[in-house]
Amino acid sequence: MKKKLLLGGFLCITLFAKAQSKSKQYSIRTIAFYNVENLFDTINNPNKNDEASPMMKLKINKSKVYWDKIENLGSVISQIGFDLTKTGPAIIGISEVENRAVLEDLVKSNFLKKMNYEIIHYESPDKRGIDVALLYQKKYFKPINHETFTPHIFRNNFRVFTRDQLLISGYLDDELIHVIVNHWPSRSGGESATRVLREKAAYQNLKIIEKIRATEPNAKIFSIGDFNDGPTNSSFKKVLKTKGNKKKVQENDLYNPFERMAKKGLNTTGYRDNINLFDQIFFTSQALDKGEKDYATYKMFKAMVFNKRFLTTKKGRFKGYPFRSFSNDNYTGGYSDHYPVYIHLIKEKK
């Protein structure tokens, strides 16, 4: 029997009440990540293996399914963090998109068009033709630079063409931050056999962080994505040396709030009858409040999995898993086989 994914993502009402006290006013912004599960268009691209995508395998109603999925995803994104911010995420990383065109359709969807999201996207060398991207509300975030980094990963002397890692630097309100969007190599072929691929992807992540710190030692860097590894796998603990305990975080350490969530049983996806927390956000110590309640600059307020009931499959083979869009080459009417994740950042208004 499959385990049910545990529901989480409860809001910290007490802290929010304090944030809205008469004596102090705070800005709250949301940074999120969402694997949107094979968001492909219905047009065959001869330069990509898109004919293997679930969308292209549909026999009928491709166009209807495509636009239904666009609206479903827009609905989800618009709700992430809305409880506190009354808007969608200021910044959201996206994975499993085919091209820029599908992102343009997404940001123009009924639920998102009023938020005026802008897009940062590059074509990746991934053989399946899937990319990562960043969407941002331009009234909150102003990018000043973005570039991609290609992990040069080999397995048995053959190049593994995986997704690029996308780095965006910019100002969240008036504060400079850096965001790395990831979608690391999958576990297809087995976890142990593919472990080295994700370790190499982690080394690439580390190089990007070191590059930023070479000119900005105290940079606030947020690495977000579908890592295809849990918070305690070797890519995190051995390579990146992330920490999940606030009290043990030292200057320039990397803190991963999702490590504690995984230990509590929270998860974001199911894989081969196992539930996993592969979607995460970790960041440099400069964005962590260690109990001092110093919110002069943006600090993490809360980290959560967005796992509302409507996003969970109610019956059948995938009961208890995220309500996926496709199963056995058929459209289910669902959203994605991953839950989104997000963090709230909070800063005292001047």
- Which class do the helix and strand fractions yield? alpha+beta
Largest sheet: 6 strands, mixed
Cα-to-Cα separation, first versus last residue: 54 Å
Give the number of domains: 1
Question: Could you tell me the number of beta strands?
Answer: 18
Low-confidence stretches: 1-15, 17-21
Number of helices: 8
Please give the order of strands in the largest beta sheet. Answer: 3-4-2-1-18-15
In terms of quaternary structure, the protein is single chain
**SSE run:** HEHHHEHEEEEEEEHEHEHEEEEEEE
Shape: globular
What is the CATH-assigned architecture? 4-Layer Sandwich
CATH class (first level) name: Alpha Beta
Q: Write the CATH homologous superfamily.
A: Endonuclease/exonuclease/phosphatase
What is the CA-based Rg, rounded? 19 Å
Q: Average the pLDDT over all residues and give the rounded result.
A: 91
Question: Would you kindly provide a written description of the structure presented here, covering whatever features stand out?
Answer:
With 350 residues, the protein is an alpha+beta fold. It has a single domain, classed as Endonuclease/exonuclease/phosphatase (Deoxyribonuclease I, Chain A, 4-Layer Sandwich), CATH 3.60.10. Helix content is 23%, strand content 30%. The strands form five sheets. The chain has a six-stranded mixed β-sheet with strand order 3-4-2-1-18-15, covered by helices on one side. Strands 5-8-9-10-14-11 form a six-stranded mixed β-sheet, with helices on one face. Strands 6-7 form a two-stranded antiparallel sheet.
